[in-house]
Write a structure and sequence with these properties.
By secondary structure, the chain is an alpha/beta fold. Helix content is 33%, strand content 22%. The two termini are 39 Å apart.
Length: 167
């Protein structure tokens, strides 16, 4: 009887699982539409009062997206005031949707990856995830690692789609 050999383990493939990098933490959206006068305009005095009296502590440690869901002209300083109020409270603050928040979170994670650890390696970027890993994260990861990797594949080690191979 011959020994069973795990060819995947012996292949030297390095699996990168973006889902494993997903930081735990509450995702929240602050929609300043609720602060608009007649859902049309922002009154600076009222908005500043809201900034001053709002309970920002409820966002302690959250990842926060700040947006306005109404089609109104909002001055940039309004978003800046919200970001300022959340400084030192929220874990991260971005302008935009929850999807844009996830994109920003993963951009930071990928930028912090030490590319040299993947030099001349055969990489498999794991494809299935239960958490909302944005497509942009896969694109950024390939852009970062392609200059150093020997090859990049997508999927699972037993069933991959070739993405890049250095010739």
């Amino acid at each position: 009887m011959s020994e069973i050999i795990n060819k995947v383990a012996a292949s030297g493939l390095v699996t990168i699982d973006l889902e494993s990098m997903y930081p735990a933490g509450q995702r929240s959206v602050i929609d300043i539409r609720e602060q608009l006068w007649m859902e049309l305009a922002l009154k600076e005095k009222d908005f500043r009062e809201w900034i001053k009296t709002n309970d920002w502590e409820r966002y302690r440690g959250h990842f926060v997206a700040v947006t306005c869901s109404n089609d109104a002209i909002i001055p940039n300083w309004a978003y800046m005031l919200v970001a300022s109020a959340l400084s030192g409270v929220a874990r991260k603050v971005v302008f935009g949707s929850v999807d844009q928040l996830e994109t920003a979170i993963f951009s930071e994670l990928i930028a912090a990856l030490p590319g040299e650890e993947y030099a001349d390696k055969r990489l498999v970027i794991k494809g299935c995830s239960d958490l909302p890993v944005p497509v942009s994260a896969y694109v950024e990861l390939v852009a970062k690692l392609q200059p150093v990797a020997k090859s990049i594949m997508f999927g699972e080690p037993c069933s991959t789609v070739p993405v890049f191979k250095r010739t």
